[in-house]
Amino acid sequence: MRFREFIGNDAVRMRLSGAFEGGRVSHCMLLSGPEGSGKHTLARIIAAAMVCTGGPEIPCGLCPACRKVFSGVHPDVITVDDADHKTVSVELVRRMSADVYIRPNEAGRKVYVIPRAQDLTEPAQNALLKILEEPPAYGTFLLLTTNAGRILPTIRSRCAELALGPVEKHEALAFLKARYPQAKPQELEDAFRRSGGFLGQAMRAMESDDLLPQAAAFAESYAAGDAFGVLQALVPLEKTKREQLIRILGQIRQWIVRSLEARSTPSARTPETDRLLAVRTGSELFAAAAALQTAIEDLELNASAGAVIGWLTAKLR
Ligand SMILES: [Zn+2]
Predict the structure, then answer these.
(1) Ligand 1 mean position to 186 CA, how many Å?
(2) Which one, of 190, 152, 155, 150, lies nearest residue 169 by Cα?
(3) Centre of ligand 1 from the C-alpha of residue 213, in Å
(4) Any idea what the CATH number is for the domain that residue 22 is in?
(5) Which residue of 21, 99, 202, 303 sits 20 to 30 Å from the alpha carbon of 166, by its own alpha carbon?
(6) How far is the CA of 87 from the centre of ligand 1 (A)?
(7) Pick from 81, 157, 154, 71: which is nearest to 113 by CA?
(8) What percent of the chain has pLDDT over 70?
(9) Of 214 and 161, more confident
(10) Spacing, Cα 249 to ligand 1 middle (Å)
């Protein structure tokens, strides 16, 4: 994903891509906005831009470094969070402080992402301030917060502040239509209205539907690593009508993509994503999401359900 693919918030987006093009990138950024406003997505694009080895557009989205960032496995992009605690403790920040003076593994920079900066305790904020006062040249910090007012002014004064606002309706609807091609226009309108203009919330509204029974049967076996069960769930889908099959495969793909996202975004973790991640590796999930995407596209181009399912049974085990 590149800056121009981030939906809405044109001023923020242009400021960032301009900063990267001109080599004037701040070593600390504070991304603020409500739940679902795109902070995590934008942080990932910024992190990719920091370590990208491709070009000419930065991030290119294609080089090995970018791919690692987007699949949450880049060793120099480090998330500072502990999903099991309500606050982000001083111990976590101290651990980060011990790590920050160890040179990057493979990139020119080391990027620390603090996804819940509003939950940093006061001692944690003070410890963070010490790091920000004398960071190593390669150190970069991305603070994400739902409330910039909870961050110490002394920290804020060291950060470039990027406030994310709601997305225009036409942009949001175009995005939702591309992401949920099987949904009816009215469903998309409803999801947008419930979201207040924040795409993450609109997506949650779209995905709050329970999995269709066929998708649930697949999910059950796939999360258990049961290759025979996966096959048993897939084969009957050969007889499903094309439109319904696109919906089922779309739901399965969403679930896998959400799990991949949850690896680098602890706040996106759910019992379902945890269950999948405990059994399946990132590269397996990546390959599965790509295969499902290909299958959906083939179906949209009128490939037969039988042919697509036959192909998928070889790809998903
Ligand atoms: Zn790249």
Answers:
(1) 37
(2) 190
(3) 39
(4) 3.40.50.300
(5) 21
(6) 33
(7) 81
(8) 99
(9) 161
(10) 29
